[in-house]
Amino acid sequence: MKIETIAQNIVDNSEKKLKEIYFVACGGSLVDMYVANYLLEHESLTLTSGWFTSNEFVKFPPKRLGKQSLVILCSHSGNTLETINAGKIAKKAGAQTVGFTFNEKADLLETADYSYIYDWGNEREVSNNPMALIMTLAVEVFERIEGYNNYSNFKEGLERIDTIVAHAEDLVQQRAKAFANARAGEKIFNIIGSGATFGQIYGFAICSLMEMQWLNAVPINSAEFFHGPFEVTDKELPFILTLSIGRTRSLDERVKKFLDRYAQKIEVIDAKELGLDLINESVAEYFNPVLFYSVLSQYRKALANVRQHPLDVRRYMGKVKY
Amino acid sequence: MKIETIAQNIVDNSEKKLKEIYFVACGGSLVDMYVANYLLEHESLTLTSGWFTSNEFVKFPPKRLGKQSLVILCSHSGNTLETINAGKIAKKAGAQTVGFTFNEKADLLETADYSYIYDWGNEREVSNNPMALIMTLAVEVFERIEGYNNYSNFKEGLERIDTIVAHAEDLVQQRAKAFANARAGEKIFNIIGSGATFGQIYGFAICSLMEMQWLNAVPINSAEFFHGPFEVTDKELPFILTLSIGRTRSLDERVKKFLDRYAQKIEVIDAKELGLDLINESVAEYFNPVLFYSVLSQYRKALANVRQHPLDVRRYMGKVKY
After folding, report:
1. What DSSP element (H or E) covers B285?
2. Residues of B in contact with A215 (CB under 8 A)
3. What is the span of the domain harbouring residue B270?
4. Which end of chain B is more exposed for a tag (fewer CB within 10 A), N or C?
5. 3-state DSSP assignment of residue B220
6. What is the b/e burial string over A170-180, where b = at least 16 CB atoms within 10 angstroms of the residue's CB?
């Protein structure tokens, strides 16, 4: 079923007018939902939205969860127990549910009123990755419930993002290799960004570096940097800083100015230089994380190569009981 | 003006019925607001709430911000520019504003319809620290707008928390010293907790360790730990784990079980053992962060002593321009 059709069905089949949209998942899938929640939190006049790690949602769901709620769930494997349980709780409360997964036999689909099996592996078709798909579903529902004044610009952005990302991936290949060579021996990174991008900042820290490379990483919001975290800055500590397109860009630029002066190991990834300004400025910032996910994936791939630590090696996940 | 009076005035003077409460601050003050937002997000059927770092709120305020909104601001010094600007934007949109500060001549007070100058320094009167005060204001408004079924239990909790915290602070003195002696040479910590406590997990990382000790620290939600971060676990990496009272406790216990097996440098701080279960279980979990803030402050004090790095030393904040 197409995303637009799912959105239409949700609205048509709702017993009560939708009032809340909850985004519920764990780890990398939760990361991918940050931007959809960010968009609704900033743009909607009527919809309440929430971003929950599955097990917190399971242990303590919001009291308002009910027939007027939509719960969007995502599990790449489709069998993440916490997310399946979150789906059960949502259903029991009367909410409508949508499950996103890569696995067409996923247990998650049993608790989902609607399901979307996404493709995976074609890195150049980011408009079909879970991040873009979930954001699109949020926008399609938002458009139908309330009307989104930048709806057509958003849809146009979706049509352009694949080309922008493909171009950006090519552009950063050499930089990513140089970064990996220079930073192969580091044990800790500070990852910084703002606005809609922050989900990917958190995600690059916990998934790409901690999970896939067993390296510690601190995710920091650019707007928070000068209120504590910046005191760790010195010439030895490596930073990765994203410069987003959009309303929070000046916050990232302020961090850059500081780091240029007091740090030395700085990798800056600039959405503007990478071509994201080809998307209409009313919506471009929501595509920052889509771009940064793909570009940062080139960095982690390069790092994994140089460190001879393949991205799929785990010591606990799927190896031991916990 | 008493918190109850401020709440009553807000409700009485509201041109439109309150629909949103936003918590806006930076760094340590933002940390202190996490629990108030968490409480409303979970308990309220009608109020939308949001937790924003000031400069993100300034650059991109939610579109719904208006006469039906309440914006609660906090700046310890009272002169945090980003938070003052957030107050101006809230006022311009027609929202009501409350400013919390320690400084009675604070610039923040100029953009605040209501102000609360809190005391500071009496570590044993936590019911009057900004965290408890802001949560109390949120509860008092919530009670008046919608009714909070655990209101009287919450008020009773406020009466008990000072005694519990004082007792807990005494209890952890020796442990904090032992922790500081054992961990004085570490450069990176993972800080873990869940639920209402997570604000303090983030705060201990960015303020107590990064800002005050120039040590890197990764804040991790217990519910997220097994979805990425746990792959960094080994016997060399130091962990600080809070076991909260309440609905998310089992998530913390799951982390403890894992760490007991695969890590060695583990400091566990248990709200139950420290007496938080003296508060009615319907509201006890909201007092976790109040307890943990005070208890963790003993740990940071001990660490600062052993490391001979006083808590008020800065190299950038107030020293250089940025």
Report:
1. none
2. 232
3. 163-307
4. N
5. strand
6. eebeebbbebb
